[in-house]
């Protein structure tokens, strides 16, 4: 039934389809018009969206809090460097082809999640959040001190990715009279990865695993009694979430072109939690919206700090853009929790004329053929 | 009501509870309780509040661990198994308080009951493999049959939380039926229902027994319903079994009257 509903909602000719197609087209032509700054900001947003999908599968859909998301991003980013690096800079590197290194880095993140998954399977909710704090501290210690692998405080350079003979570096490639550097090429890679990540996560959430995950979140005991192996599911979702984080880490590393340890700290984990709260817990659209919002906000403030009151460049007396962005999304988290439970994704769903607004309990889909016992004698209980 | 779902085709085992004792830090919630649910019967478990009925259910479904004693479903010992393994053996349960996700549609809630009968994993669901789509379609068809059996076919597309309370209880019963159980544990299935909904639920439970041959263990405070439906009754009071037998015999047992009405009226 729900498939039929979504299919009919995506009929050719419906505004949603035209809107989606137009948005895709715009995203595809952007590299021809935008400068490097905006493309880089967009790529950060894509990486953030991928990471946010991962943590939303775990925290939003399964109810398992994780403070260790930044650790798995670091595993992905440094894993890629270690697999792809050729050892010329004195740091450990296997010199594998870029694409293979990227795949292995994601697998490595999944493996790291798998090592932690016996704990992730046994602990629930906030308790897992506390346990995953340990990952951040371990991760930071290793990143700063394992010089041969991570380059220590200064981090290490990220080897460019190569795929089907195309290298994603700054050697210029002329496409329709527009020079394509690293960010332009990576833009398309990022779009493809994000699209794949979104589709995969939606498939998971709408299918059998998603129903089981939501059941564990809503009624843990009932979920077990319904035949769901709760610990095994929690562990599996933790691994999947780590792999999304690893993929986000690889993409971030490719965009930054350098990985530094201090980036992968506690603040990053909190940023990811802020993303899914602002965007909407438990939904893929929410993760993407929150990821884009939280990662673009500091960039926007940075860019327009001259024009904004109170905000100025760091060290000149006013509030630094990064700081202002934190205040703003701190306020956004509070505002969303108070006024918009369900986040930005629910706000979009509530817009009139868009299918899916029936999800809100205030507007049940009124079918005329329900004259049954709707007089709620028991509802007052 | 449309035709009932076809029987699962496997034989229904007996449930044997022997000397079941549960202690929580010094409090004895169940004290050497024993009874047998014969295959294909409705067996009622009754008693005043705090008698240990819900504790007994929680042990049977693996939520609590028994301190002593055994619970056997056919050849399987249940006391050592986790909840999902017990569900795999064909034990379905509804809870005293609602355990339906409020925002999911009724159909998706019922699909959760198919979990143990389906196989689609993360990779198949994420990649939308044809096998996953086929399995989903097949089981959705069966879910619609079961919804029609309990009379919820009109409500399938609605969020479960938007239904009146009685229909939510009915949806939970349907979800337990979607597990194709051999034994159904019903914890106060008609509590909070209107008279009409009670009649419908009672006929669903009778239908489950008569046409599917499923055993039912029923905890219920509605004595009229218990006396009409049950083939046998076990009475608990303060964690002990005080009576066991056919509904008519139990009803007139002096110990039962005393437990329900107090010492004075029995004298």
UniProtKB/TrEMBL annotation, chain A:
Protein topology in the membrane: Multi-pass membrane protein
CDD domains in the cross-refs: TM_PBP1_LivM_like
Localization per record: Cell membrane
Pfam families according to UniProt: BPD_transp_2 (PF02653)
Keyword Transferase: no
Top-rank lineage group of the source organism: Bacteria
Keyword Transmembrane in annotation: yes
Residue ranges of the TM segments: 12-33, 39-58, 65-85, 97-119, 126-144, 186-205, 235-256, 272-297, 327-349
PROSITE patterns documented for this protein: PROKAR_LIPOPROTEIN
Keywords for the protein's UniProt record, in alphabetical order: Cell membrane, Membrane, Transmembrane, Transmembrane helix
Biased composition (Low complexity): 361-381
PANTHER family the record matches: ABC TRANSPORTER PERMEASE PROTEIN, HIGH-AFFINITY BRANCHED-CHAIN AMINO ACID TRANSPORT SYSTEM PERMEASE
Name listed for the protein in its UniProt record: Branched-chain amino acid ABC transporter permease
From TrEMBL, chain B:
CDD domains hit by this protein: ABC_Mj1267_LivG_branched
Keywords associated with the record: ATP-binding, Nucleotide-binding, Transport
Domain ABC transporter: 15-263
PROSITE patterns reported for this sequence: ABC_TRANSPORTER_2
One Gene Ontology molecular-function label: ATP binding
Protein name: ABC transporter ATP-binding protein
Organism, as annotated: Streptomyces flavochromogenes
């Amino acid at each position: 039934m729900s498939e039929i509903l979504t299919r009919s909602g995506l009929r050719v000719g419906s505004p949603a389809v035209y809107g989606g197609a137009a948005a895709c087209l715009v995203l595809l032509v952007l590299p021809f018009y935008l400068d490097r700054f905006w493309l880089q900001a967009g790529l950060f947003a894509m990486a953030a969206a991928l990471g946010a999908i991962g943590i939303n599968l775990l925290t939003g859909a399964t109810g398992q809090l994780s403070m260790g998301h930044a650790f798995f991003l670091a595993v992905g980013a440094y894993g890629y460097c270690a697999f792809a690096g050729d050892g010329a800079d004195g740091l450990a590197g296997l010199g594998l082809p870029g694409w293979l290194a990227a795949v292995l880095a994601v697998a490595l993140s999944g493996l790291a999640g798998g090592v932690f998954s016996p704990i992730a399977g046994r602990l629930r909710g906030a308790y897992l959040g506390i346990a995953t704090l340990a990952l951040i501290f371990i991760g930071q210690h290793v990143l700063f001190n394992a010089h041969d692998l991570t380059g220590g405080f200064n981090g290490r350079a990220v080897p460019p990715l190569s795929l089907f003979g195309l290298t994603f570096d700054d050697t210029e490639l002329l496409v329709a009279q527009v020079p394509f550097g690293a960010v332009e090429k990576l833009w398309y890679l990022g779009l493809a990865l994000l699209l794949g990540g979104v589709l995969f996560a939606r498939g998971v959430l709408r299918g059998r695993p998603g129903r089981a995950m939501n059941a564990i979140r809503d009624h843990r005991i009932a979920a077990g009694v319904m035949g769901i192996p709760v610990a095994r599911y929690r562990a599996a979702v933790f691994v999947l979430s780590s792999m999304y984080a690893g993929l986000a880490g690889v993409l971030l590393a490719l965009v930054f072109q350098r990985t530094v340890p201090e980036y992968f700290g506690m603040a990053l984990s909190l940023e990811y939690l802020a993303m899914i709260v602002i965007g909407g817990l438990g939904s893929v659209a929410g993760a993407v919206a929150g990821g884009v919002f939280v990662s673009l906000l500091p960039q926007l403030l940075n860019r327009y700090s001259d024009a904004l009151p109170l905000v100025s460049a760091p060290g000149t007396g006013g509030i630094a853009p990064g700081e202002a962005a934190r205040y703003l999304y701190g306020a956004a988290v509070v505002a969303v929790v108070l006024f918009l439970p369900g986040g930005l994704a629910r706000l979009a769903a509530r817009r009139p004329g868009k299918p899916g607004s029936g999800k809100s309990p205030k507007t049940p889909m009124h079918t005329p053929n329900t004259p049954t016992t709707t007089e709620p004698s028991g509802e007052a209980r | 009501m449309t035709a009932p779902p076809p029987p699962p085709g496997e034989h229904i085992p007996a449930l044997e509870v022997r000397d079941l004792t549960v202690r929580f830090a010094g409090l004895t919630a169940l004290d050497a309780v024993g009874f047998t649910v014969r295959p294909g019967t409705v067996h009622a478990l009754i008693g005043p509040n705090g008698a240990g009925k819900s504790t007994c259910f929680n042990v049977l479904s693996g939520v609590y661990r028994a301190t002593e004693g055994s619970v056997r479903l056919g050849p399987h010992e249940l006391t050592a198994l986790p909840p999902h393994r017990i569900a795999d053996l064909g034990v379905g349960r509804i809870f005293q308080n609602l355990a339906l996700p409020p925002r999911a549609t009724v159909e998706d809630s019922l699909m959760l009951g198919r979990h143990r009968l389906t196989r689609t994993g993360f990779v198949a669901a994420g990649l939308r493999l044809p096998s996953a789509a086929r399995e989903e379609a097949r089981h959705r068809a069966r879910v619609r049959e079961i919804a029609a059996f309990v009379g919820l076919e009109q409500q399938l597309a609605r969020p479960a939380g938007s239904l009146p309370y009685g229909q939510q209880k009915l949806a939970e019963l349907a979800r337990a039926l979607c597990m194709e159980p051999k034994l159904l544990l019903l914890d106060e299935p008609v509590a909070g229902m209107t008279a009409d909904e009670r009649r419908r639920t009672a006929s669903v439970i009778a239908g489950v027994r008569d046409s599917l041959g499923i055993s039912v263990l029923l905890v219920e405070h509605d004595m009229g319903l218990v006396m009409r439906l049950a083939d046998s009754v076990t009475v608990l009071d303060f964690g002990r079994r005080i009576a066991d037998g056919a509904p008519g015999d139990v009803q007139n047992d002096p110990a039962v009257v005393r437990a329900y009405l107090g010492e004075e009226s029995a004298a």
